[in-house]
Design brief:
The structure is a homotrimer. Chain A is about 25% helix and about 35% strand. The longest helix of chain A is centred in the middle third of the chain and has 14 residues, at about 60-70. The first copy, chain A, has helices spanning about 20-25, 30-35, 60-70, 90-100, and strands at about 1-10, 15-20, 35-45, 50-55, 100-110, 110, 120-125, 135-140. Chain A is built from four helices and eight strands, in the order E-E-H-H-E-E-H-H-E-E-E-E. In chain A, the strands form two sheets. In chain A, strands 1-8-3-5-6 form a five-stranded antiparallel sheet. Chain A has a three-stranded antiparallel sheet with strand order 2-7-4. Chain A is elongated. By secondary structure, chain A is an alpha+beta fold. The interface of B and C includes residues 37, 53, 72, 106 and 108 of B.
């Protein structure tokens, strides 16, 4: 068994949900190819952006994600005490905790064993989040 | 260290939350027995069903999960744009993202090291989701 | 590659969100040091407390987490059927499922490779949850 790891700097994305499956597969292709059976872990080193897996085909799903989470995690809630980093900051922390800081995906024959309709989503929850850093780790035989 | 992996096809479940701990333990018993110290990862290859861990004893907990998530993730929200696959589809994608696409559980002495009251839940979020496919991967010494 | 595992008993925490990064790093320091490149998995063996990663600096963020989740997962909802363990019990199960039962963090050069502002949160969702048990597992080269 072996473990391979790499840091990946993403370009800045606008607020919303974005498909990053191909970005990850391309950056880590040589490492994934070395693993016949194993796992990929993608970790985001931030607390106001998230990673999740969802539908990879229709962009209106990503738009509905943004609209839903903006309603269920409001800005300017009267009980927020952490409000000095902008009205989008505290909701971004909550959205990141609800959606998660990482995804873990099986590797089979050197490739991500995702379902047909699955893609990796970056959730950028800040208005101006800037570049985000991922840590990619894969292990297996 | 070694890695073992298997695909597991579940029977169709009705909409709601279902305990699948024993199904997974039985299907993967020989593989789990080979690992003294390690991890099990259970991955669902779908975007409208979920996996999580929760209370394994009282079925009213699973009923309350269904009632809660139906209220917090409504059908027919006026702002949904992804509405052509049925009123249960977009809520199913959101529930799957909130609850998660996988669970990761320690293995100790060839067995899942769950707490006394913990079980693995399948969240079937479609009215007629059909059979779902899991990828089981275990690794360790 | 190797796998190391340890059970860690936490002291009782009051209801709310608590930073436990240092507690975990200290309890598992010798094990983490043995791994140059790998992963740490922290698993909570309970269904009414949770683990997540979020902002490690400003305690008002943890307070806002508690206030937000108390509102979005209400006590005494009229549709709850699982109500005989106290009004805080069913909400605790739901919060645990939303936030998650585990965190997985890359290890680089024998240390947790967290972002600057990331810490591990224990979410204690019961009024009197008592001591909680974690299973720590690390693997890698």
């Amino acid at each position: 068994m072996q473990t391979v790891q790499q840091t990946l700097r993403l370009p800045a994305y606008p607020r919303g949900f974005h498909l990053i499956t191909q970005t990850i597969e391309r950056a880590f292709a040589n490492e994934l190819r070395q693993i016949r059976t194993g796992m990929l872990h993608v970790f985001i080193q931030h607390t106001s952006a998230s990673l999740t897996i969802n539908e990879n085909a229709d962009p209106t799903v990503r738009g509905d994600f943004e609209r839903y989470f903006n309603r269920t995690v409001p800005e300017n809630a009267p009980y927020y005490q952490h409000d000095y980093e902008g009205s989008d900051d505290m909701p971004a922390h909550l959205k990141a905790a609800i959606l998660g800081h990482s995804v873990t995906i099986p590797i089979t024959n050197g490739r991500l064993n995702l379902g047909t309709w699955q893609g990796i989503y970056l959730g950028e929850h800040r208005n101006d989040g800037g570049s985000r850093t991922l840590v990619l780790t894969a292990w297996g035989n």
